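In this section we turn from sequence analysis to structure. A common task in structural bioinformatics is to predict how a protein folds when a small molecule is present, because the ligand can shape the pocket around it. The inputs are simple: the amino acid sequence and a SMILES string for the ligand, here 2-oxoglutaric acid. Study the lines below before reading on.
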Amino acid sequence: MSNLIKEKFAQEGYVVINNLFSIQEAQAYNEECKRILETKDVGKSGVLVGLSILSPLFKEAAAHPRLVASLKEIIGDHVIFLSDKVVFKNAATDFGSPWHQDYPYWKGSHKYSVWIALDEATPSNGCLRIVPGSHLQGFVSHGAEATDGNGFVNRIRTEDLDSSKIIDLEASQGDAIIFHDLLFHASYPNVSGKDRWALISTYKDGTQEDPEYEWAGAAFSV
Ligand SMILES: O=C(O)CCC(=O)C(=O)O
């Protein structure tokens, strides 16, 4: 099993782990996100970074034993949690996230993010979309316009995307998708009227050198 995860990740740049979190855990994170968001103004981006600093529940989630075991299969024994965020789509924030790689946000050694469904995610409420294997193309220029105020300033031009290779990753509450920072990914707009909340936690291999990241003030070894 474990070699399969590692092999699939190397070839495809992602793995889906169904039911990594129980529905009860995902629901508790969902409610805690909503509680925190009530005290913050995140504009219309739908993104709030740094949950593990704001609530012990998210610090615990970042080091969840089942999650850490899966990460170790892919990254190795020295895994460091760097940062987390919630990305929500709802009636007020209904646009999809544009196509991008995460690498330009962090640079340095490669990072691994875990996208955790805090609601069921479908094409109509904004599930994740990816291009399997696109991480093998390396870093591509992010030259698309980003003037709509929806965040995500780094965007891949549509001509750099082979749309025939895109797949949708529908998810049930508690499912997790671990993906490489060079994987092309995006999400659909939410046209359903139903919320779609996702928790995204980012990790690195602790044996790799990196700059001191200002945004990783909550980093710890898991
Ligand atoms: O959940 C989403 O809409 C995708 C978010 C995303 O791609 C990111 O934060 O890098």
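Residues 87, 97, 102, 126, 128, 185, 187, 198, 200 surround 2-oxoglutaric acid (CB under 6 Å). As an exercise, try to locate the residues that line the 2-oxoglutaric acid site and compare them with your own expectations.
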